[in-house]
Specification:
The complex is a heterodimer of chains A (167) and B (656).
Chain A lengths: L16 H8 L9 H12 L4 H11 L3 H10 L11 E6 L2 H4 L3 H12 L12 E6 L11 E3 L2 E3 L4 H14 L1
Parallel strand pairs in A: 1-2
Antiparallel strand pairs in A: 1-3, 3-4
Helix pairs in contact in A: 6-7
Chain B lengths: L22 H7 L7 H14 L7 E6 L2 H5 L2 H14 L4 E6 L11 E4 L6 E3 L4 H14 L7 E4 L14 H4 L18 H6 L4 H9 L2 H11 L11 H10 L5 E6 L8 H8 L1 H15 L3 E7 L3 H17 L14 E7 L8 H8 L20 E5 H13 L1 H6 L8 E8 L5 E6 L4 H8 L9 E6 L5 E4 L9 H6 L8 E6 L4 H15 L5 H17 L8 H23 L3 H5 L2 H9 L1 H8 L15 E3 L9 H5 L5 E2 L7 E2 L9 H5 L5 E3 L1
Parallel strand pairs in B: 1-2, 6-7, 6-9, 7-8, 10-14
Antiparallel strand pairs in B: 1-3, 3-4, 4-5, 10-11, 12-13, 12-14, 15-18, 16-17
Helix pairs in contact in B: 4-5, 8-12, 9-10, 11-12, 11-13, 12-15, 19-20, 20-21, 21-23
Classes of the chains: A alpha+beta (167), B alpha/beta (656).
């Protein structure tokens, strides 16, 4: 059956050049390219903006509902813009038995947010990851790309203050 | 200097378009097609350089896998590079992967002309500066930094004698290059004997024979299920074209890092295995599938696939054999269950990564797909190089070969180890792992991640292979071993496992989707305090039998490995640590003092100096008191977050 779009304008005409260039690197109407395309968008913009998703849905011929079901299935994708500094707490078993959960709880209490959320001042995004590959330094937390190891809840509060002061 | 991969002179005609059949052998012993003294000399020189043997050159090799980088290897690397250049040394500062001794990182290997190789451990910039000042300038060896000597003789045998103490009872078959060669250097890999097996396979052109060798070797899939790899290959070969081979490096067990270590330290061995698998199965397309946050592995693989294409080892008509093969790198967007082969295929098709019931197995589909774990594939060149007989001598009867285990938790030597199958857990933890940190008593080891199970101290002598663990109702999983001591609570650890699994359940089948949540609820109910007179208090007594029953139902009725494995930790801990559950349920006590819901915090009036630090820090306002007078915790407000404990400088907070 031939698919027809009844909109008066082609959605692809409404987007900026940068996004268009990203889209055009992938084949039109091939749902197979969905995950790599989403990954590229997220690498570029830090999250998956709502407005772009409807275009992606049109471009790859994947219904928007299905698109959301796929995005929310995988841990990597984010629908909200992230904070300036990304805090990743390792909750792998190696870090857990050495107190990783205490770090997470302290951070949640200090920032007043839960894992997966961004602080109100848009400065920190708190996330959990399973294993950063630095089990020898357990428990570890990655602050904006730098790994800090052998941490105590006390240290993490200090670190947080340091980062806050820097911004 | 030119790279060994480049043609030595105009007589060498090898290029991806016009491949030379003898490229691999020529690289090692060449030039073969022409007799030229100068070419020969230059090749020798290049080889000496790769093998760290050239005279008058200082080689500094730094462990820069993610464990090294986390310990600060980049700073050390930059420091060496800057300083050696400034001081006018003719020096090579090289990168290498992980040797498996992650807790000793940053490891730096220094080779001075005419001296044996020395490895320094836990190097930081200050130590690096000492190494340059003392060892390189004045030839005084700072003994206190030395970790190993003469550890590695480049270019010939793998490990020099005398390192048995460091390596212990390990058998490095797959990880022989890890932490030794530059993981992105194709020539170093080839000089270490790499691609010999692939070259032979291409020359013999007898895929059936290779498949038979793999079957005879008894190699079993290292992803967890332990299916015979050779059988899988045979099935795959029988299918119709087009075919696809996938190296599965989607390792999302939260305690396993064996694939990570392999892909960061010796990715070429995985690719060689993948290429042999493709040749035997008749596939022309391959995918290497890596977990999204393995940044370093991704960058290594991107670089290496490019190099292989340039060297003509990937692409059309590889080494003149008529075999075409291309590899793409795909990055996984996460989700634990997406490492299961049918789920992985769904992810690649741009769908939700939910497992499908098998059969039909992916190898039997209309477009057959062969999915092998990266570690399994890395075994293939080793098997072909060693020969079936010698390979089968390693390991146990039904699980031949070696297995890489990742050791984490309260063990002293955190890192990966490679040992023959059948080694006892005791040897692994106490001989190779160096025992427990701060000499606390061993309580249990969680083997195989969140879908594995616990082994108690009385089972320390269990041989680690597929069948012995299966007999105990456990699985080897991806090979992670998390050691815990008496400070860790089994119930809390199980809660952690179940929480992880409940988040990761794909939701397709009810036992797993709903059952794991119910298990979690039951565990939650026993780690909180109840008044025994109330209805809830009475319900506590049923929890133990409910847990057992429900766990068994989930294990029996779930559709895929995730659901079937999720109750394993519960079942095995109920078997070995029943009294700990009983303590939680009946006496409402956590022996390891970890389950916050069962603890009471109070302040010792004699120790408290009234500094008010805890009062200011308490997020719940549960602490009252005046400055310079002893403080008090209001039990009904206290959420047992432990922040006061962290900040008290006088150890006045008592938990009971």
């Amino acid at each position: 059956m031939e698919k027809k779009c009844f909109c008066s304008t082609n959605p692809l005409d409404t987007i900026n050049q940068e996004f268009k260039a990203i889209l055009e690197a992938y084949p039109l109407g091939k749902p197979k390219a969905l995950i790599p395309l989403l990954q590229t968008i997220q690498t570029k913009y830090g999250y998956l903006p709502n407005s772009m998703l409807s275009i992606v849905s049109y471009y790859l011929q994947v219904p928007l509902g299905q698109l959301y079901s796929i995005i929310t299935f995988y841990n990597q994708f984010r629908l909200e813009p992230p904070g300036k500094i990304h805090i990743e707490v390792c909750t792998g078993a190696g870090c857990y038995v050495r107190g990783g959960n205490d770090l997470l709880r302290t951070l949640e209490a200090e920032l007043g947010i839960r894992a997966g959320e961004t602080s109100k001042d848009k400065l920190f995004t708190l996330e959990t990851v399973s294993c950063l590959g630095a089990c020898a330094l357990a428990p570890v937390v990655r602050f904006g790309g730098t790994i800090y190891g052998r941490l105590q809840p006390k240290d993490i509060v200090r670190l947080l203050r340091e980062y806050e002061a820097r911004e | 200097m030119k790279s060994l991969l480049e043609p030595c002179c105009h007589l060498c005609t090898h290029s991806p378009e016009h491949p030379c059949v003898d490229f691999i052998i020529c690289l090692k012993t060449g030039p073969l097609c022409h007799d030229s003294k100068s070419c020969q000399q230059e090749k020798e020189k290049q080889k000496l350089c790769v093998n760290e043997e050239a005279e008058d050159v200082v080689y500094v090799t730094i462990g820069m896998a993610s464990c090294g980088l986390a310990a600060g290897a980049q700073k050390v690397y930059n420091f060496f590079q800057r300083q050696l250049k400034r001081r006018g040394y003719q020096a090579y500062v090289k990168k290498t992967g992980c040797l498996g001794f992650c807790s000793e990182e940053v490891l730096v290997r220094v080779k001075k002309p005419g001296k044996t190789t020395v490895i320094f451990s836990r190097v930081n910039v200050e130590k690096a500066s000492d190494i340059i000042d003392l060892y390189l300038e004045k030839d005084i060896l700072p003994e206190e930094y030395v970790w190993g000597r003469d550890f590695y003789k480049p270019g010939n045998s793998n490990f020099a004698k005398g390192n048995e103490i460091i390596l212990g009872k390990q058998k490095r078959l797959i990880m022989k290059n890890a932490g030794i060669i530059d993981p992105t250097s194709l020539e170093a890999y080839i000089l270490q004997g790499g691609f010999t097996a692939f070259n032979e396979v291409l020359k013999e052109k007898d895929p059936e024979k290779i498949i038979k060798t793999v079957i005879d070797s008894g190699l079993r899939g290292r992803g967890g299920a332990g299916f015979l790899t050779g059988e899988k290959w045979r099935q795959f070969r029988e299918g119709a074209k087009p075919k696809l081979v996938i190296a599965n490096g989607h390792e999302s067990d939260p305690a396993a890092f064996t694939n990570r270590a392999l892909l960061e330290s010796d990715p070429l061995s995985v690719l060689e295995g993948l290429m042999i698998a493709a040749f035997c199965g008749g596939a022309e397309q391959g995918i290497i599938y890596v977990r999204g946050n393995y940044d370093l592995a991704i960058s290594h693989l991107t670089q290496i696939i490019k190099t292989l294409n340039q060297a003509g080892l990937l692409g059309k008509n590889i080494l003149g054999s008529g075999f075409n093969f291309n590899v793409n790198l795909e990055i996984s967007p996460g989700a634990f269950v997406a490492g299961e082969e049918t789920a992985l295929i769904a992810t690649l098709a741009g769908e939700r990564g939910m497992p499908k019931p098998r059969p039909p197995y992916p190898t039997e589909m209309r477009k057959p797909i062969l999915v092998n774990n990266c570690e399994t594939l890395a075994n293939i060149p080793a098997i072909l190089n060693l020969g079936v007989e010698k390979y089968r001598e390693i390991g146990s009867e039904k699980s031949p070969g070696t297995k890489i285990f990742s050791l984490a938790g309260k063990v002293r030597q955190v890192g990966y180890i490679e040992v023959p199958f059948g080694m006892s857990l005791r040897e692994i933890i106490f001989d190779l792992g160096g025992g427990l940190r701060s000499n606390r008593p061993f309580k249990a080891a969680q083997v195989g991640g969140p879908s594995g199970g616990f082994l108690a101290a009385s089972f320390l002598d269990t041989p680690m292979d597929y069948d012995s663990l299966e007999a105990l109702g456990l699985s080897l999983g991806s090979g992670s071993i998390v050691v815990i001591d008496d400070e860790s609570c089994i119930v809390a650890l199980n809660r952690f496992n179940l929480e992880f699994m409940s988040k990761e359940s794909c939701g397709r089948c009810i036992p797993c989707r709903e059952g794991i949540y119910r298990l979690l609820e039951i565990i939650d109910s026993i780690v909180t305090r109840d008044n025994l007179g109330t209805e809830n208090g009475l319900k506590r007594y049923q929890t133990l039998s409910q847990l057992e029953k429900l766990a068994q139902v989930i294990a029996d009725t779930s559709a895929c490995g995730l659901g079937q494995g999720a109750p394993n930790p519960v079942l095995s801990s109920l078997k070995f640590f029943r009294e700990e559950y009983e303590a939680h349920i009946f006496s409402q006590k956590c022996p390891a003092k970890q389950c916050k819901g069962l603890l009471t915090y109070r302040i010792d009036a004699d120790l408290c100096k009234g500094c008010s630090v805890c009062l200011e820090r308490c997020p719940e306002g549960a602490i009252v008191g005046e400055r310079k007078h002893s403080h008090f915790i209001l039990a009904d407000r206290c959420t047992r977050c432990g922040i006061c404990l962290e900040f008290c400088s006088f150890s006045a907070i008592i938990i009971s």
